Amino acid sequence: MGNPPAVLGPRITIVTPSFNQAAFLEETVRSIRAQGYGNLEHFVVDGGSTDGSAALIERLSDGIDWWVSESDRGQCHAINKGIARATGDIVAYLNSDDTYLPGAFDAAIAAISAPGVQWVAGGVLGFGSDGSACAPVHEWHMAQPPRSLAECLGGNFIAAQPGHFWRKSLFDRHGLFDDSFRYLFDIEWYARLLAAGERCAVIPRPVASYRFHATSKTVSEGDKFEREWERIRAQYLPRVPWLDQPRVRHLVAMRRATVRYGAALAAASREGTPAGWREFRSAVAGYPPSLATRVALGAARRLITGVRA
Q1: Which class is domain 12-220?
Q2: Of 37, 163, 180, 277, whose CB has the highest number of CB atoms within 10 Å?
Q3: What pLDDT band is residue 7 in, cutting at 50, 70 and 90?
């Protein structure tokens, strides 16, 4: 008798959106291949890059099941194009400047195979464009996803995007990412799932690495994220149980104040200490309880001692 046929695990579809990221894309693709997972579908959706990305993708195409390089409406639209074609039981997206860690797929499958689990998130390590570790994100080593819509809207969670995996059936039931969001379409998706009663289970280890560099949206456009946070809260806060709404409003007010204290330091660096104090007073006036936080006290100390550019 011959050997029995190998039993493949669930099919995984990974979508990699990319635009002018040729410097990092190959490392991303190779981190996916290095998983050594047999039942894999990988799509690369390039937005019409002008930096040689298409030639690079062509060179790497033996391990890519489908790719395209054409103008699109941005990152979210690119991801949705890939998910719409996905045949995998499990779906994730990995941006073209991030990587998976060894064993990520096995860990994700183990977690999502538990009864009733449809969505999982693992830890994420931060690193710089030169490959060095970023100490400020050490707390991302273990994911702490939002356990409720209230926690999500309050920003009271730690679960960086590259660590997430979903059952494809979630997209079939709840729709694709909302591409009217440029920055926080993933957060809107989490809120949508939580509002519908879905919950996220934890993968108890880091599964991906998140690259910080000057052209990443997280670094270059961080100040614009808050506008989309406000939009998400306006949309979903009415769906939070009324007993939880005061706590969410407190968390939101504290987050806004934290942003303002950061703006105070930035203003002091740009325009001088008086401008910083004006922003600081505005933050306190916006939510007086925030004055007792470490963020506020730290900002005040730096304004007193002098903020270096």
Answers
A1: alpha beta
A2: 163
A3: low
